[in-house]
Design a protein that fits this description.
This protein is an all-alpha fold and 172 residues long. The chain folds into 2 domains: 4-53, no CATH class; 65-168, Orthogonal Bundle (Cytochrome Bc1 Complex, Chain D, domain 2). Helix content is 43%, strand content 2%. It is built from 7 helices and 2 strands, in the order αββαααααα. The chain has a two-stranded antiparallel ribbon. It starts with a helix and ends with a helix.
């Protein structure tokens, strides 16, 4: 049976447990942090991992695009093309959600006949060189902020090179 006194005891128990929890949290934060506000707090005890924080920067290797294209496999690029074909075609003058990619390697940026570009691409490049295509395919929105292309990109450099080699086979 649940009477008023029993209900009061249950609510009081939950409130007491919450108070103990909050006091314990406050005590732990006080012991661990020294300093001002939460944003300015400094850790009192730091666990050394043996890594230097300054050495954690990513080293970006220079890519020789001529060598990259020489070693690229166009047939493997055809498999990568499957990710593009939903929005692009390889026939001149036929656009879908994206512009046609026939003769794209070496073509001026933003000149696919009949396609309305967002303008973001013209701000970062003039010609679709191998290097520009390589960086655009890696991260379209990062390379050309404001582009309307919704593709996330290809993270593997070999896949990008293979795709560019495949696209280069559809050139005049």
């Amino acid at each position: 049976m649940l009477d008023t006194m029993t209900f009061t005891k249950i609510v009081g128990s939950f409130c007491g447990a919450l108070l103990i929890f909050l006091l314990g949290k406050w005590a732990a934060e006080t012991l661990y942090h020294v300093g001002g506000d939460h944003g300015e707090a400094v850790a009192v005890y730091v666990i050394e991992t043996g890594e230097d924080e300054a050495g954690t920067e990513e080293v970006v290797a220079e890519v020789n695009f001529d060598t990259l294209l020489e070693t690229a496999d166009a047939s493997a690029g055809e498999r990568q093309w499957g990710k593009c074909r939903a929005c692009h075609v390889l026939e001149a003058g036929e656009n879908r959600a994206g512009p046609y990619l026939y003769n794209v390697v070496g073509r001026d940026v933003g000149v696919a006949e009949g396609f309305n570009y967002s303008g973001a691409l013209n701000e970062v490049a003039d010609v679709w060189t191998v290097e520009n295509l390589y960086h655009f395919i890696e991260n379209p929105r990062g390379w050309a902020p404001g582009t309307s292309m919704g593709f996330a990109g290809l993270s593997d450099s070999e896949d990008r090179a293979n795709l560019i080699a495949y696209l280069a086979t559809f050139s005049e």
